[in-house]
Write a structure and sequence with these properties.
With 328 residues, the chain is of the alpha+beta class. It has 3 domains: 127 residues, Beta-clip-like (Beta Complex); 103 residues, Alpha-Beta Complex (set domain protein methyltransferase, domain 1); 44 residues, no CATH class. The chain is 26% helix and 14% strand. The strands form 3 sheets. The protein has a 5-stranded antiparallel β-sheet, with no helix packed on it. The protein has a 3-stranded antiparallel β-sheet with strand order 5-7-6, with no helix packed on it. Strands 9-10 form a two-stranded antiparallel ribbon. α3 crosses α7, α6 crosses α7 and α6 runs parallel beside α8. The longest helix has 23 residues. The radius of gyration is 21 Å and the shape is globular. Bound molecules: S-adenosylmethionine. S-adenosylmethionine binds next to β4.
Length: 328
């Protein structure tokens, strides 16, 4: 599902997805952007030649007449197949070909308690479809999902790798996310214990992988938007500028810091205009400069970008864009 993304506030790829796997309440405005390929490389992905025709047949409507699926340094990507003008609708995806928690089979839905959230429900759908392989009505999408080794979100990092970021807030967020995923997995196993064949031998690793499926390459520096229209029941992508044939077209997952991109999507950007660092300070009450330090921190803090992870803040935690050097 080349363009599927786990879209949370966005999420999703983010995540996140023609045939987006989208928790319904996560459907939101998407911003679409473009990065020209300075190296001019655009490899068409012949393995995906049948994907758009399949999707259009399923939707009973044209999805895009100006995009092709290709490969770039970011993996599978979208390219302009012909000239595109600013304001053109590049992509129109009816809700009917977007996987959402509503696609969960009623017999499974009725077994799950409220504690199972939308991302976990999407994971169950993906696992069920994977289980029936070519019989799945989503097979052309499911078979193109990234393989576990291709995913670099921090929840897939080994403990040794995580140790390298222990000082960062991403470390704790990763631990929290792992524990949430494990709780979801156990809740699902409990709920389906009387019908174990529904999911087959679902392992925690398989579940974790399905939970993280996102599809769409990201460029954070764009103001162009795509709207999901509840009345028209579709999601549209509007070009924010002109494109020449062969230029890569990217979506903005959200105004995400590198910490969030690393946590949720497994990459970070060298120049990220939305980057932020959350710093926890402990300014002791006996510190003679306490007031001055707190005042400095208050004045230079920046409102944290509200993103999908909701990195926790406390009165002693400040989100800054500038590096402050405090000398006591
Ligand atoms: C939603 S998928 C997009 C499709 C993906 N390229 C593929 O081959 O299936 C998201 C993944 O694409 C890659 N990606 C997307 N945007 C990127 C970027 N700006 N820089 C590096 N990797 C990116 C990351 O691996 C990310 O986890």
């Amino acid at each position: 599902m080349l363009w599927a993304t786990r879209i949370s506030n966005i999420r999703l790829y983010q995540y996140h997805r023609p045939f987006f796997t989208v928790p319904h309440n996560f459907r939101t405005k998407l911003n679409f952007s473009s990065l020209s390929q300075p190296q001019g490389f655009c490899y068409l992905d012949e393995d995906c030649d049948d994907f758009l025709p399949w999707l259009e047949q399923k939707a009973g409507a044209k999805i895009s007449s100006v995009l092709s699926i290709g490969k770039s340094a970011f993996g599978r990507s979208l390219f302009a197949s012909k000239s595109i003008q600013t304001g053109d609708c590049i992509l129109k995806v009816p809700y009917s070909v977007q996987i959402t928690p509503d696609n969960l089979l009623p017999e499974i839905k009725s077994l799950l308690g409220d504690e199972v959230g939308n991302i976990a429900k999407l994971a169950i759908i993906i696992l069920c479809e994977q289980k029936i392989r070519q019989k799945s009505e989503w097979a052309p999408y499911i078979s193109r999902l990234p393989q576990p080794g291709e995913m670099h979100n921090t929840i897939f990092w080994s403990q040794d790798e995580l140790e390298m970021i222990r000082q960062s807030s991403v470390y704790q967020e990763t631990i929290n996310q792992k524990s949430q995923t494990e709780n979801d997995y156990l809740a699902i196993k409990r709920a389906l214990r009387h019908d174990p064949e529904i999911l087959g031998d679902i392992t925690y690793e398989g579940f974790m992988h399905a939970c993280s499926l996102d599809f769409l390459n990201h460029d954070g520096a764009t103001e162009a938007i795509v709207l999901s229209d509840e009345d028209k029941q579709d999601s549209e992508v509007i070009a924010d500028r002109d494109y020449g044939p062969g230029e890569e077209v990217l979506i903005r997952y959200g105004k995400f810091s590198n910490a969030t991109l690393m946590l949720d999507f497994g990459f970070s950007l060298p120049y990220n205009i939305h980057d932020q660092v959350q710093v926890h300070f402990n300014v002791p009450h006996h510190d003679l400069l306490r007031e001055m330090k707190i005042d400095l921190l208050q004045r230079h803090r920046t409102p944290p970008i509200k993103d999908v992870n909701g990195f926790n803040s406390s009165s002693e935690s400040f989100t800054i864009k500038l590096v402050l050097i405090l000398v006591s």
